[in-house]
Amino acid sequence: MSRRNWSRQETLMALAFYLCPPFPRKNWDDSDAEIRLLAGEIGRTESAVCFKIANLKACDPNRTGLGFTNTAGMGRQVISEYLADPDATMSEAMWELEQIGIRISYDGEIEASGSSRPDQSQQLGMERVEQVRTRVNQD
User: Over 90: is that where the pLDDT of 11 sits?
Assistant: First the structure.
């Protein structure tokens, strides 16, 4: 299997998993049902998703504890976008998740809607207003 780089969209989805309640978790495990769900939908292994979340943690200046020291550029870019404009970044991350049929509710429930990715032609020109609850100023 050839290695492929993480896209910005995939990284945004991992960011949502990292930041949304009841997250951030201290440790992610590749046996978590949520990790399996995201990995299956984006064509990644559970371990790859866990490593991406750990990379995002390493880039997060508000994190506590140890994280990876070698992080990918896309992780740093997405964290920088989030720090500059958390609402817009999380709105985009949640939208990306919805496009693959995953929804994170305000109470932290992660669910698969069972719908497949919509046609690109259906996405063009659409607008919507979203409200996202994000944890801030935490150690």
Answer: yes
